[in-house]
Amino acid sequence: MLTYTIRRLILAIPTLLFIALVIFLLLELAPGDPMAEMPLTIPPEVKERMREALGLGQPWYIRFYLWLYQFFVVEPQYWIDALFGTNLADGAQRIISFQSRSPVFDTIAERIPQTLWVVGMSYVVGVIIALPIGIISAYRQYSWFDNLGTFISMVGFSVPTFFTGVLLIVIFSVNLGWFPSIYDTTLVVNDWSSFLMQLRQMAMPVFVLALYNAAQISRFMRASMLDNLGQDYVRTARAKGMRERVVVLKHVLRNSLIPVVTVIALGVPQVFGGAIITEQVFKVNGLGQLLIIAIHGNDVPMILTLTFIFAVLIVIFNLIADVLYGFLDPRIRYD
C-alpha cells in the first residue's frame, strides 16, 4: 500500500504540472485585460507602466515559470517563516492579485472559514443523511419510505440550487422572518447568542446544499446496496443463520460502500471550491464568490491559483478513495 501511494504521488507531479499549464494557457488565450477596468483618465503610458509592474509585458512562459516558483517555493517559505519565525523567504515576491494588490494566499485564507462553515457543514450533513436513507430504501425496496426517498432525491437533484435558495428566502426570511436572508461574514462567534445567530444564518444555505448532496449520494447508496443484496454471498450468510442486521450492516454495507466512497471523496474538493451559485444567492463571502469576482476582473493570478488548488485536491482525494478501497475490500491489492 505504501509503495502504491508513493508511486501515485510521483505520477501526480507531471499530471498537476500539465493541468497548471493548460489552465494558464486557457487564461492567456481568453479575452480581457486587467487594465480594462481602470479609469479612462489614466494616460496610456501610465497604463503601460502598470502592466509592466504586474509582469504582463513578459513572455507567457516566463510568467508561467515565475508563478510555479512562487507557488511551490516562495509561498511555502512564507508559511514556514510564519510558523517558526525563520527568514527563508527574505522578502521574495509572493503571488499578488491584480485586483486587490495583496497576496493571493492571504485572501484565500480569509475566505476559507466562510466556505467551510457553510459548504463544508452542508456536505457533512448531506452524507450523514444520505447513507441511512440509501440503506433503508434498498432494504425496503418499493416501500413507502423508498418511494418518499426517491421523490425527495429527484426533487433535490433536479431543482437548481438558486431556485431552492430563493424559495427558502421568500418563505422563511420575507414571509416568516425566521432566518436572515444575507449571510453576515463579519459575525464573530464568542458567546451563546452569537453561536445561535451563526446557526440561524447557516440554516438555509446549508439546507439547500445538503439537499442537493444527499440526493446524489443516497441514489448511489441505494443502487449499490440493491446490487449486493442479491449476491450469492448474502444468501449463503443468511443460510448459515446469521442475524439479518449482521448480514446487512457488516457484509452488504461494506461491499456497497466501495463505489459510494468514490462519490464522497471526489465531492470533498467541491467543499473547498465553494458553492458558487449558493454563495451568490445568500451573499456568502466564500471561495466561490471570490472566484467569480476574479473571473470578472480577469485576475489571472487569483484564478490560476484557485483552480490549481482545486485540481490538487481532486488528485489527492482520488488517491484517498483508491486507498480506502483496500480497507473496505480485502480482495483489492495494490502489489
How are the SSEs ordered, and which strands pair?
Elements: H1 2-29, H2 44-53, H3 60-84, H4 104-139, H5 144-158, H6 161-175, H7 192-229, H8 232-239, H9 244-273, H10 276-282, H11 287-296, H12 300-328
Please give a handful of descriptors for the protein shown.
MetI-like fold; single chain; 2 domains; 12 helices; mainly alpha; 335 residues
Characterise this structure.
The protein has 335 residues and is an all-alpha fold. The chain has twelve helices and no strands. The chain has helices spanning 2-29, 44-53, 60-84, 104-139, 144-158, 161-175, 192-229, 232-239, 244-273, 276-282, 287-296, 300-328. Helix 1 (2-29) runs antiparallel to helix 12 (300-328), helix 4 (104-139) packs across helix 7 and helix 7 (192-229) crosses helix 9 (244-273). The chain is globular and about 85 Å long. The N and C termini lie close together (7 Å). The mean pLDDT is 79.
